[in-house]
Design brief:
Blueprint lengths: L1 H5 L1 H13 L3 H29 L2 H20 L3 H18 L2 H9 L6 H8 L2 H20 L1 H22 L4 H9 L4 H9 L2 H19 L1 H11 L4 H26 L4 H19 L6 H15 L2 H13 L4 H30 L3 H19 L9
Helix pairs in contact: 2-13, 3-5, 3-6, 3-10, 3-18, 4-5, 4-9, 6-7, 6-17, 6-18, 7-14, 7-17, 8-9, 8-14, 12-13, 12-17, 12-18, 12-19, 13-14, 14-16, 14-17, 15-16, 15-17, 15-19
Length: 378
């Protein structure tokens, strides 16, 4: 639900522009603020999940998400949209982020940890591939306001359900007690770790080249290239299906091969797919080919980065380290979201954005390849 809601803006952006007369930069600013708020939610959520578990965080996040989506659907003024989508929905995105899920799951697995992380984070792509095509149908039938309201009400209804179902186990309570430590000491430890910095800045670029530019601007770009909203949403649905396959495959491979090479290869392959975006105009096969290939490498970084963080940085700081990396990911995404809107408003084209994304993805691959394959002895 969270991932689908996060991508709802790109499904509705063109319709909102036509009805409200707002610029793409203004609409992108709502997504940018949401991503910045999500970054803060990642950071503090990562620290809190180590100590209190995911139950309260996820139910609170679901409620905040619902209020933000419902309010954005009823907004009449720019400040209302930016406040409700950017702050309330953004907080919901942050408290239900994959970083929090990864931190909660990683400490319960040593063998096959990568695959466990892949399965745990696969819910996002499942939500996208089922709900985004449905959202396009609702948009056509009822309009963008009704779409936001419906998704918001569903999120609010799911908040108490999440609280009731996520009851802590005895093992989870015991793990939470063991992870209590000085945040200052943990932060100092991470700041002195070269591995942390390489993962941190690589994940910043990951956010720029995934959530920032694709999950905000892919559907508007496809519409610009001559495809209808339904076809564009279906292409994004294909992307989401391959997201699921990519996460599971990357998690499986992380248990069986050099994870450093795997992460660098994912970043490099993702970057090269941006060249395909330059050739999708009036070319449906190319549109869906890009969706499939990009989708395979989109979220595939998540289980590999989480697995490297667990082994190279340690489970004691797992929530904090993943929270910081999640924050960097969302700040990178925010830069990509607003950057894409500015590039389009200046040049009426996304070409420069795609080329920039290609270069940055290759930089992330170069950063990853420097990580030592094996962690230091405990």
């Amino acid at each position: 639900m969270c991932f689908a809601d996060r991508n709802l803006l790109q499904v509705t952006m063109t319709s909102m522009e036509k009805e409200l007369g707002w610029s793409r930069s203004l609409l992108s600013s709502g997504a940018t603020l949401a991503l910045i708020t999500m970054a803060a939610g990642n950071l503090f959520g990562g620290m809190l999940v180590d100590r209190y578990g995911p139950r309260k965080l996820i139910s609170l996040g679901m409620a905040s998400l619902g209020v933000g989506m419902l309010g954005a659907g009823l907004a009449r003024e720019p400040w209302q949209y930016v406040l409700l989508f950017g702050l309330f929905a953004g907080l919901g995105f942050g408290l239900m982020a994959t970083s929090i899920v990864s931190a909660a799951v990683a400490r319960f697995f040593v063998e096959r940890r990568g695959f466990a992380l892949g399965i745990a984070t696969a819910g996002g792509p499942v939500g996208q591939m089922t709900l985004i095509p449905l959202a396009a149908i609702v948009l056509t039938a009822l309009g963008w306001r009704a779409l936001f309201v419906i998704f918001g009400l569903v999120a609010i209804a799911l908040a108490p359900v999440a609280y009731g179902m996520l009851r802590p186990t005895d093992a989870a309570r015991g793990t939470a007690k063991l992870t209590l430590a000085s945040i200052g000491a943990d932060f100092s430890y991470l700041m002195k770790s070269p591995t942390f910095h390489l993962l941190f800045w690589g994940f910043f670029i990951c956010g720029f080249t995934s959530i920032g530019v694709i999950e905000t601007h892919f559907i508007p770009y496809a519409v610009l290239c001559g495809f209808g909203p339904t076809t564009s949403a279906n292409a994004f649905g294909v992307l989401s299906v391959l997201n699921l396959a990519g996460i599971l495959l990357a998690g499986w491979l992380a248990d069986r091969m050099n994870r450093v090479l795997l992460l660098a290869g994912i970043y490099a392959a993702r970057g090269l797919t941006f060249l395909m975006l330059l050739a999708i105009t009036d070319n449906p096969p190319m549109l869906f080919a890009f969706s499939a290939l990009y989708g395979l490498f989109d979220y595939a970084t998540i289980p590999v980065v989480a697995s490297l963080a667990a082994s190279h940085l340690g489970l004691r700081v797992m929530g904090f380290s993943i929270g910081l990396m999640g924050m960097s990911h969302q700040l990178g995404a925010a830069a990509g979201a607003i950057g894409g809107g500015v590039v389009f408003d200046l040049y009426n084209s996304y070409t420069g954005l795609w080329m920039m994304s290609l270069v940055l993805a290759l930089v992330a691959a170069a950063l990853s390849i420097v990580i030592k394959p094996q962690p230091k002895a405990a």
